[in-house]
Amino acid sequence: MPKLTSFFDFHLLLLFLVISAANASVVTSPISQRFKEAPQFYNSLNCPKIVGEGKDGLFLCSDEAVHVAMTLDSAYIRGSMAAILSVLQHSSCPQNIVFHFVASATANALLLRATISSTFPYLNFQVYAFDDSSVSRLISTSIRSALDCPLNYARSYLANILPSCVRRVVYLDSDLVLVDDISKLSATQLGDNSVLAAPEYCNANFTSYFTLKFWSNSTLSLTFVNRKACYFNTGVMVIDLDRWRHGDYTKKIEEWMEIQKRVRIYELGSLPPFLLVFAGNIVPVDHRWNQHGLGGDNFRGLCRDLHPGPVSLLHWSGKGKPWARLDANRPCPLDALWAPYDLLQTPYTLDS
Hints:
Pathway: Glycan metabolism; pectin biosynthesis. The chain has 352 residues and is an alpha/beta fold. The chain is 29% helix and 13% strand. 37% of the residues are buried.
């Protein structure tokens, strides 16, 4: 149905322009990219049947569903599309996945929603508005400007943003692809007390994530006493939202951000507050679920190799993003593993 798709895209763009002109006080960021429609994926025969389907066929409160949370914006939407496709393609029960997209309240939610719907017509999803002002006052400048975007901190507010009936969620960054069934990750057991699970890296230099002012202040550094604190990447996490809400962990993270505003105790965006609250108290997940750092460091974004061992998820954390390097005709070798999930509609693509 290529003609209908083009007709829809034209009128969607027209509607966006009308809304923007009528409400000039709202900051919007139009999506200049067009995406191909992804194929539909179906459950295998042994998938559990989701009961209690609600409006539009969504089952937002089902514990049988796999709940996935991601942020959504125009700058990273190409990566988001690839990530969504990879999740669906490798899932044995893709129709049992519910996506929860968090977008800035100043973004054009109508356009973001329509872009997702036209690319994934059968996707179970919701879009939630994140009030940037709730965190903007707490953000300190970091070593890379992209890390200072308020939406980068939305992961700390998922328990407040998502419906209270959603009890567990897998949080994913937009610069990754899965090559394994996400239900395996979602099923991670959190034990009796842990709030989240993630691959942790205890051979990393943990002290480097905080400044000398932090380590020289005994009142602050004592937070890690009696904790085997290891680095973990917050781009892939399994979170028990019930326990998060009960423990008011958003407030705990905000308290560290307030300290950071008074005394600079770290340099790296939204990661250090998570480490301060959770490092040493998480359930470790196999490293295969976050082969991170493929985007290189935060300064130059140089090419990197995979870590030793099996791979279930590839994560281009760091400055270099695969779509940008491919467009610049300077890809890293591993960017070829991201390219098959790229749904960008290029001017040279022929409609079939």
